[in-house]
Amino acid sequence: MRRPVLLGLLFGLAWAAAGRQIYDVEIVVGGKRIAEPSVNGYTIAFHLGLRSLSDRTLELVRVDYRMVVEDVEYLRLESEVDPAVGLEAGGRTTIALPVRLSAEYLFPAVPGLRDKDLAVAYVSGGMTFRDERRRERRVPMAFSAEFPVYRGFEGGVGPVDVRTLTVGGSELTMTVLFRNLNGFPVSLGRLTYKLELVGRPVGEGAFAGDRTVDGRGMVGFPVPLTLDFFEIGKAVSDGLLQPPVAVRVSGEAEVETPWGPWRIPFDKSDKVDVLRKEGGHEPNSGKFGSCPRTD
């Protein structure tokens, strides 16, 4: 029997055994959220619902737990809850149990994660409650949760598609690119951008709408532009005539994931091809550049 399956059975048996005993508090997993992920790691917050089955006011004073990722124990912690969380007789409340997943420690401890898109964590432990007479009692908890192996996102600019190019100006299209390097899909709700050509700002704006970006997938947003070289400078004209041309894109993407909403900033400078339709050039694939991951 594989160890992850065995661990799952053990946790299930432990929870079933605990269920035969009546405790003062019922603990239910309400969900999980990940905020500001980066390739260096992130904190996953498990939202736990507490329901009092006691006729006394209780206080949550201590939490202990261990986390097993795949088949490896990743951490074991015990911490005091300060200030204590009050729970009225028959009342309910929700708390967050934050767990830091650091790439510096996680990947060496569980090297098989590097080849996975998603992983499973098993959490077991207990919460210690104190009543009005200062008597303490520990309530066990055990649950599992799926979490992502985060690889980040990329932003960039595709080749510049020039329709007309004269001494005075140009009509062209630049394409803002957004690529999902992760193995899970995200929903792109809004993307704001600023574009530069040869160091000169040429456009800014936003795209809104619910677009799915598949795992390891990409979307592109064309931006039609009309440039006046007398206004923005001859350097832009020279850059278009002597490709590859220097470009820069910066902005922020808002994505929805199974672990909550994420805001992904990006800022990338690159050099890309120039396509001239009147010259008979065929479009080709754009160049991607990494945007900084959130820390």
What does this 3D model show about the protein?
With about 300 residues, the chain is mainly beta. Helix content is about 10%, strand content about 60%. It has four helices and 17 strands. Strands 8, 9, 10, 13, 16 and 17 form a six-stranded mixed beta sheet that branches. It has a four-stranded antiparallel beta sheet with strand order 4-3-6-7. The chain has a four-stranded antiparallel beta sheet with strand order 12-11-14-15. A hairpin with a 2-residue loop joins strand 3 (about 60-70) and strand 4. The longest helix has 17 residues, at about 5-20. The protein is elongated and about 85 Å long. The two termini are about 40 Å apart.
Summarize it.
By secondary structure, this protein is mainly beta.
